[in-house]
């Protein structure tokens, strides 16, 4: 497969959703989820019990046959999904930093009692899991239904053979994270949504539609819809398949009808499947792009004997993608440089449990920074991520694995690779190949067998056979080795983690000169928000890292160095920064677990250096439990380099940002270097009104303004930035007074009482003037009155062992966050209060919509 295909083959895609409880699709009915019209949330009213390793480290023996109908559930916990059993901790110092020092290992059993009305008898009943960590085994009424080991993939179980219509049924799920390993916090439990799907026996199969746009002209797009129809009856049927196309708005409501596909008739044998291929022309298509992410929905109906028996919704978008070796990536024919971030799946204080509201907040911050692409490192994402990316205008690098046959950890994917890789890759493509945001498939990340030519080809070919419209890539930590071995020949796009400087050599190698290259991982700069050190970048007493954005591991670099490198190779596709957000686990450079230091590095001299570092760290046993890599901290507060990326990625938005803060009473008369990130090209710095000089940045070389010799005096530091000689942006930091009050800002004033919608409340510890006091860490106590509840708190401190569910938390460098929600199905309002001894309290009221 080849670039040619991408340039000619205008792919497209969709957003997967479904209408709830409707057998006939009504226009203007909001689609909750792609797929069968009758798809209902199956998240509520589960019972949970944990065996094996417990939160406190003790072991509780797992009784046999917990799937049995007769199981005694007296002591089981009642809960709603999504659920991450490990996020409530406690953090334990002896647990591994790489997985967040949280007790995620264990055996989890979930049970749910439910009834399907007798009137549904004869229907097919499925349960769809968006993801369950890990080694899921599913039982219905004591009978084994099936398994799906890989915790990041979505899968369907057919309950029909064991279901009792009109009577109580018991669905039981066994999860086992004891037999799973990870290099970051994976979470544990049914941490994504679950759905109950009802269809007639003749119906569109699971992920049974595939929409492409093989040809897009200015005024029309050819639409091709493949529809797989299953016949679960014991006789041959004639099924008539029709598909109508509608425009779809941001709320997933179908609007104007814009076309119909040619009807096709399938003759499907008893218990067989047939596929219909239908076509249409969409006139004047509204293209999906990053600024106007227009979407459509294809509504497919299957009729037997003149009666509609199934309705299936497939959201999609129309856009072209083209990858060129010399002119980067083109979206709808226009060059888009990839300004990407890698992100793990956890949502900080909420753990791995998916929450659309929290994810939307994250993506909103990334978008504001100018990020235009997301790498789902290193696993299939929640479907909600793709839906949000489709709606908000992000391109997605959709990734399958962190390990193949040779593991990075004893119990990682290597255990199941042989039996499961094909099934997992097919599940990933079938689920995601209609999303317009998905533009690259990635078969791996720094897999130890990345030089295996045969395996690389095999995996890439599986992806291509399921979706030839997108390129296949792989993230290499040894790009030289990957290319020398020839493994990269099998890929369409070369993914290079960190080693961009080798590019010139590959640009002249006939095997690779035509292979587009992307920085699948870059930078890995580490810092702690609001910390600035002057002698060493690292503080091994507090386990924090200076925020001058100049600290990084041996394989990483600062954002500036990476921008400089990118400027040298403008023909490459762009970069994915490691990472957008801090995440749970992998607290490099304070990780005292051997894997993170040792598992990638092939250079023996590096290994020796890393081993020495590891031995030192193991002696001091750092409490660090989350990463320092984020451009934004774990609580969602931007670190300084947020403004570096924003300046570079959104050059037309006036930005100026000074660092550090200006509260250095112990450094009066001493030097405090001042740096400024700006989208301008020049700036003049003033301390208490006196100019400290004007500095310029050379395009492609400098990415911050630096005044390295500023002698500290309290007062006001101001920068006036210029662009092409004209005044462009300013920033001011002031020495604050003592902390006297709490300032509170909620990210909204209204919330839905649906158990999902969240309000994020930022508390600033402030002085009399309302300025946030840096380096202030008082204990803040949150309380709530009315129909709301506090879900979690955080402050972005990577070393804190305060449980995320605690309503009391010290501020970290002047800031603390409370995440609140309305009580389910309640009306009215609630008031959140924040108090701290000696400070004036604050409160904010949220109305329930
Ligand atoms: C990369 C790896 C990532 C993460 C990162 C930290 O080599 O692919 O998963 O470990 O290093 O810098």
Low-confidence stretches: 1-25
Report the average pLDDT across residues: 94
Task: Report how far the terminal alpha carbons are from each other.
Answer: 50 Å
Bound molecules: beta-D-galactopyranose
Number of helices: 11
The proportion of residues forming helix, as a percent range, comes to: 10-25%
CATH superfamily of the largest domain: Glycosidases
CATH architecture of the largest domain: Alpha-Beta Barrel
What structural class do you assign from the helix and strand content? mainly beta
The radius of gyration over CA amounts to: 27 Å
Count of the separate structural domains? 4
Family: Belongs to the glycosyl hydrolase 2 family.
Keywords: Glycosidase, Hydrolase, Signal
Protein name: Beta-galactosidase
GO biological process, one term: carbohydrate metabolic process
Summarize the structure in short:
Residues 742-844 form the Glycoside hydrolase family domain. By secondary structure, the protein is mainly beta.
Describe the structure.
Residues 105-199 form the Glycosyl hydrolases family 2 sugar binding domain. By secondary structure, the chain is mainly beta. Helices cover 13% and strands 37% of the residues. An eight-stranded parallel barrel has the order 25-26-27-28-29-30-31-34, surrounded by four helices. Strands 1, 2, 16, 17, 18, 20 and 21 form a seven-stranded antiparallel β-sheet that branches. A hairpin with a 2-residue loop joins strand 20 (295-304) and strand 21 (307-318). The protein is globular and about 90 Å long. It starts with a helix and ends with a strand. Residues 1-25 have low confidence and may be disordered. It binds beta-D-galactopyranose. Beta-D-galactopyranose is lined by residues 378, 445-446, 477, 497, 521, 524, 553, 556, 578, 586, 588, 600.
């Amino acid at each position: 497969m080849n670039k040619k295909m991408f340039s000619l083959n205008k792919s497209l895609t969709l957003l997967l959703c479904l209408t709830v409880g409707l057998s006939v699709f009504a226009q203007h009915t909001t689609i909750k989820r792609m797929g069968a019209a009758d798809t209902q949330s199956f998240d509520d009213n589960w019972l949970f019990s944990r065996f094996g390793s417990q939160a406190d480290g003790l072991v509780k023996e797992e009784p046999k046959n917990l799937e049995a109908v007769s199981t005694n559930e007296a002591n089981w916990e009642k809960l709603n999904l999504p659920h991450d059993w490990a996020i409530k901790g406690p953090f334990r110092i002896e647990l591994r930093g790489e997985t967040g020092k949280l007790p995620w290992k264990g055996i989890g059993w979930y049970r749910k009692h439910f009834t399907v009305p007798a009137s549904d008898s004869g229907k097919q009943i499925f349960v769809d899991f968006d993801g369950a960590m890990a080694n899921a085994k599913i039982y219905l009424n004591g009978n084994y239904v099936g398994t799906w080991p890989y915790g990041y993939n979505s899968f369907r179980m057919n309950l029909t053979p064991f279901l009792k219509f009109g009577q109580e049924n018991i669905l039981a799920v066994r999860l086992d994270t004891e037999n799973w390993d990870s290099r970051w916090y994976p979470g544990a439990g049914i941490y994504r949504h679950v759905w109950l799907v009802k269809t007639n026996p003749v119906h569109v199969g699971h992920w049974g539609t595939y929409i492409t746009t093989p040809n897009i002209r200015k005024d029309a797009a050819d639409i091709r819809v493949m529809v797989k129809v299953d016949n679960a009856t014991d006789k041959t049927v004639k099924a008539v398949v029709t598909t109508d196309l509608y425009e779809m708005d941001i709320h997933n409501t179908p609007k104007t009808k814009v076309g119909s596909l040619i009807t096709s008739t399938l003759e499907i044998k008893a218990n067989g499947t047939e596929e219909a291929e239908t076509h249409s022309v969409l006139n004047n298509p509204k293209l999906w792009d990053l600024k106007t992410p227009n979407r459509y929905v294809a509504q497919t109906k299957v009729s037997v004997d003149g009666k509609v028996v199934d309705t299936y919704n497939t959201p999609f978008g129309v856009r072209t993608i083209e990858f060129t070796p010399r002119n980067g990536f083109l979206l709808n024919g226009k060059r888009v440089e990839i300004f990407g971030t890698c992100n793990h799946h956890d949502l900080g204080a909420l753990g791995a449990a998916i929450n659309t509201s929290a994810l939307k907040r994250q993506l909103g911050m990334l978008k504001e920074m100018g990020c235009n692409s997301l790498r789902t490192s290193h696993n299939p994402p929640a479907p909600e991520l793709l839906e949000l990316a489709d709606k908000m205008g992000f391109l997605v690098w959709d990734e399958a694995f962190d390990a193949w046959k040779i593991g990075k950890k004893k119990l990682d994917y290597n255990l199941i690779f042989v039996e499961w890789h094909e099934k997992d890759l097919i599940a990933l493509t079938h689920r995601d190949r209609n999303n317009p945001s998905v533009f690259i498939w990635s078969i791996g990340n720094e897999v130890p067998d990345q030089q295996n030519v045969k395996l690389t080809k095999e995996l890439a070919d599986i992806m291509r056979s399921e979706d030839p419209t997108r390129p296949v890539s792989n993230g290499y930590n040894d790009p030289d080795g990957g290319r020398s071995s020839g493994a990269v020949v099998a890929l369409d796009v070369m993914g290079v983690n960190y080693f961009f400087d080798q590019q010139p050599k590959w640009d002249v190698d006939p095997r690779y000169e035509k292979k587009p290259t992307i920085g699948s991982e870059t930078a890995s700069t580490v810092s702690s928000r609001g910390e600035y050190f002057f002698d060493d970048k690292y503080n091994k007493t507090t386990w924090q890292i200076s925020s001058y954005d100049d600290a990084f591991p041996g394989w990483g670099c600062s954002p500036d160095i990476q921008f400089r490198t990118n400027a040298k190779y403008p023909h490459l596709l762009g970069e994915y920064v490691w990472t957008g957000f801090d995440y749970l686990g992998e607290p490099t450079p304070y990780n005292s677990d051997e894997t993170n230091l040792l598992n990638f590095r092939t250079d023996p001299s590096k290994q020796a250096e890393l081993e020495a570092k590891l031995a030192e760290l193991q002696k001091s046993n750092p409490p660090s439990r989350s990463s320092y890599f984020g451009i934004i901290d774990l609580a969602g507060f931007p670190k300084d380099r947020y403004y570096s990326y924003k300046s570079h990625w959104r050059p037309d938005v006036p930005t100026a940002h000074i660092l550090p803060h200006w509260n250095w009473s112990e450094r009066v008369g001493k030097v405090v270097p001042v740096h400024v990130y700006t989208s301008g090209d020049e700036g003049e710095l003033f301390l208490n009104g006196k100019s400290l000089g004007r500095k310029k940045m050379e395009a492609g070389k400098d990415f911050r303004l630096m005044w390295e010799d500023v002698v500290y005096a309290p007062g006001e530091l101001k920068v006036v930035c210029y662009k092409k000689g004209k005044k462009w942006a300013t920033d001011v930091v002031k020495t604050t007074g003592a902390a006297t009050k709490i300032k509170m800002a909620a990210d909204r004033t209204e919330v839905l009482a649906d158990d999902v919608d969240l309000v994020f409340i930022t508390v600033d510890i402030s002085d009399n003037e309302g300025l946030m006091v840096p380096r202030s860490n008082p204990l803040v106590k949150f309380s709530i009155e009315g129909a709301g509840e506090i879900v979690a708190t955080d402050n972005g401190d990577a070393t804190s062992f305060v449980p995320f569910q605690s309503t009391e938390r010290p501020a970290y460098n002047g800031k603390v966050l409370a995440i609140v929600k309305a009580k389910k199905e309640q009306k009215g309002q609630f008031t959140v209060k924040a108090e701290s001894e000696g400070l004036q309290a604050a409160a904010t009221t949220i109305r329930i919509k």
